[in-house]
Amino acid sequence: MEGVEREDRWRPGGGRSGAYGRRARRRGKPGYKVDGQRFIGPSTFPSKADASAWLANVQADINRGVWTDPTAGRQTLAQYVAGWLDRKQKVGHYRPRTLELVTGLLDRIILPALGQRELSEIKTPLVRSWHADVAAKHSPGQAAKSYRLLRTILREAASDGVIPFNPCAIKGAGTEPAPERPKPTFEMIEAVVARLNDRYSRRNHGYGPRPKRCTPPDDITIELEVVHQPQQEPVPVPKQGGNP
Fold it and tell me: Do 135 and 58 fall into the same domain?
């Protein structure tokens, strides 16, 4: 990506229809080129100075490597999911059971609410509202599973440059709530302590239960065989200063 080639003939009104059309000029939409491809600004500006400032931000995004094609985010989530799911199936990313769970979450929870939204429209506040609605309508567990799947899909979209960043940035939204464990009452604790005291008191006085001895069963006979090894002859050691 070489940079922004600005359209210097931009003006907020009047004039002949140039490369971007008469309507774009009258409304004050700045035009620019990136790698030979023309783009039109997403909104109107009251003056050329405001349009120039917006184009400067576009150039800064290109220099930082964070610029994304504004036309790529105009596809709907349903359209992107269709291609995403097709790619996953071709490479065998999911097992049959997992693929069934993924398609179930997409068809029942994600696509009915967000499928017709353009990717550029899906922002963090929208994801937060959708997550709360799913938790209320279905369950917190289903909301967490659906959120994790949506986060995975949009993470790949951000990696492909379709959207500038992943809007699924809600802390704890993908964590399923664990069921609360029952707390023991004071009466339950007293009963356990009383049983433990009685058990160890009887054992200490000698008439409590004793540990079982490890004895072999009656139907198993253990035979021992004594093996005698021949005694080796001692090896003579020569004395110092003489012959052996």
Answer: no
Residues 25 and 85 in one domain: no
Cβ proximity of 41 and 12 under 8 Å: no
Q: What is the number of domains present in the chain?
A: 2
In a domain? residue 98 = yes
Placement of tokens 């009915």 in the chain? 112
Tell me the per-residue pLDDT of 57-114, one tens digit each, with 9 for 90 and over: 888 877 777 777 777 778 899 999 999 999 999 999 999 999 999 999 999 999 999 9
C-alpha 230/C-alpha 211 separation (Å) is: 44
* H or E stretch at 141: helix 140-159
* Residues 54 and 125 grouped into a single domain: no
Q: Which domain holds residue 125?
A: 74-159
Share of the chain above pLDDT 70, in %: 69
Q: Under DSSP, is residue 32 helix (H, G, I), strand (E, B) or coil?
A: strand
Give the pLDDT score at 217. Answer: 56
Cα–Cα nearest to 111, from 85, 140, 72 = 85
Residue among 53, 49, 15, 20 at smallest CA distance from 37 = 20
Enter the pTM of the model.
0.56
The two tokens of residue 233 are 């002859």
Average pLDDT over residues 44-66: 79
* CATH number of the domain encompassing residue 138: 1.10.150.130
The last residue of a domain, from among 99, 126, 159: 159
